[in-house]
Amino acid sequence: MEFGIFDHLDRNDRPLTAFYEERLKLIELYDRMGFHGYHLAEHHSTPLGMAPSPSVFLSAVAQRTRRLRFGPLIYILPLYHPLRLVEEICMLDQMSGGRLMLGVGRGISPYEVAYYGVDPAETQARYVEALELILSALRSPTLDFEGKFYRFKDVPMELAPVQKPHPPLWYGVINPDATPWLAKQRINIVSHTPAPLMGTITARYVSEFRAAHGRDAALPKLGLGRHIVIADSTSEALALARRAYARWYHSFTVLWKKHSSKPVSASYPENFDTLREMGVGIAGSPAEVRDTLLRQLSESGANYFVCRFAFGDLTFDEARHSLMLFTDQIMPTLAAQAAE
């Protein structure tokens, strides 16, 4: 069992200069506390994401950490010129000594891609073609590609990644039907779904993976993601979680409400208590959170637990306290249980 962090980098009331610096200080703690990876979302024109250019923020992460792996979850491929993104991927992997994790996807918000002049109806086709092109460019010293959206002839690839043939791929999953292709391609996954659904996803992934690669092949990371708040008492943790989640939920829905619609592929309830009943939000004392996670990880089949400690209007000190309680009183038990 290894542990990671997911971060929307959603806006709070702090000035952006202080906001970025405080988040980088938290990431330094993730590095020192032994977390495997830091996964950063990409969003545009919404308070849900203050890293519309993930590569810019991650370049700071590369310099402020030493062991922590990091990457976007995800780069919204239809919004990039693929050659420019290939160069950014290579730079980040080189600058970090080979610690980049390459999360990819088409994006979930039609409004965000439309602001960039991209037809939402084309995003899936653009994503598929761009991914094929990017992986080809990362593997070869010269790029030749002929597609519907992109065409290149004899383009020198001056930059290359440290990790060969490319940094490990990551993908966010909510539907078990997406797993066959992901398993065949050895792609790591993260899912913020209830434990029973995650159990279905992991069971299908493992079955497809073993059929494609054999029983002795090492499984990729199958990550279970959770909003998580830990405090000295359950009442204190719930008060913090309810307050912070209300702010996060506003940020999550603001762009959809502006367009009089609702999210279509990622649904969250309006309040933390319902999120907690679903098992997707966890708040409590260290002992309560530990016991809840032991049950959920067993039911889900996950081999990687992804925490969301900083969200909504949680202060730096509140998020840090939650983190320290997790690493001191919960993480060792979860790791030991998984090793048995």
In short:
About 45% of the residues lie in helices and about 15% in strands. By secondary structure, it is of the alpha/beta class.
Write up this protein:
With 340 residues, this protein is α/β, with parallel strands linked by helices. The protein has two domains: 7-36 and 173-219 and 221-340, TIM Barrel (Alpha-Beta Barrel); 38-168, TIM Barrel, CATH 3.20.20. The protein is 47% helix and 17% strand. The protein is built from twelve helices and twelve strands. Strands 1, 2, 3, 4, 5, 8, 9, 10, 11 and 12 form a ten-stranded parallel beta sheet that branches. A two-stranded antiparallel sheet has the order 6-7. Strand 4 (75-76), helix 3 (82-95) and strand 5 form a beta-alpha-beta unit. Helix 1 packs parallel to helix 11 (316-329). It starts with a strand and ends with a helix.
* Largest beta-sheet details: 10 strands, parallel
The structure class reads: alpha/beta
How many domains? The number is 2
Can you tell me the CATH topology of the largest domain? TIM Barrel
* Shape label: globular
Please outline the helices and strands:
Blueprint: E1 2-7, H1 16-32, E2 37-40, H2 54-64, E3 69-72, E4 75-76, H3 82-95, E5 102-105, H4 110-115, H5 123-139, E6 142-146, E7 151-156, E8 169-172, H6 179-184, E9 188-191, H7 195-213, E10 222-230, H8 234-258, H9 272-278, E11 281-284, H10 286-300, E12 304-308, H11 316-329, H12 331-339
Parallel strand pairs: 1-2, 1-12, 2-3, 4-5, 5-8, 8-9, 9-10, 10-11, 10-12
Antiparallel strand pairs: 6-7
Helix pairs in contact: 1-11, 2-3, 3-5, 7-10
